[in-house]
Amino acid sequence: MNSRQRRGVILLILSVLCALGAFAGVLSVVHDVQSKVGPEVTAYRVRSAVKPYTALNAGQFEKIRMPKRWLSQNAVTDLAQVRGKIAVTTLRPGSLLQSDMIVARPALRPGQQEVAIMIDAATGVAGKITTGARVNVYATFEGQKEGDPDQSKIIVTDARVIDVGRIKALDPDQDKNQPTDAVPITFALSTLDAQRVTYAESFAKRVRLALVAPGGDPAVPDRDRTYELATDK
Predict the structure, then answer these.
(1) Do both 213 and 123 map to the same domain?
(2) Quick check: 75 pLDDT over 60?
């Protein structure tokens, strides 16, 4: 082996050693980063704004991966946790989903039943009534016979809303005086109150909901439960 070949072999060995050194350096950096960051786990981020008391579903969240050490103890790592739950506050886009943001959907009490009726989306709900809200239910009836005045009645007070559905377009061939869009509202009601709201849905000209302020008194005196324009003073 002449001197030129020896120099080539030496340079080749030096190149290999430098490459091994660089590789070892990269591994050291990666190991150092991993030791500082730690293993990654699954978490969930809010896709778009979710209103308070809205029923939750998997489509409202996106799956992400992040270091376990950066995850709060109450972060949701399994979307099965949102099943049957509602938001307790506004969930903002990009927020990390945490267990203290959600609670179980309100359950029925003994003697109550779920009753859903369609409410005019424009005048009956107007985006203000959400799951967990308490409302008074108003219904307007035509006079029973010709010449009898129309009446507005409060048929149920302090009705608890347990679900607000999606807006649904009604049959365009119906009476033009009827609403064109409605929302299914589900209440937790006693048997008698359930009969009252289903009767109103079937026979009243209009059914509207009045939101009761938190902590407010939903009770209405009997004398104020029925209204006629002719008797208004």
Answers:
(1) yes
(2) yes
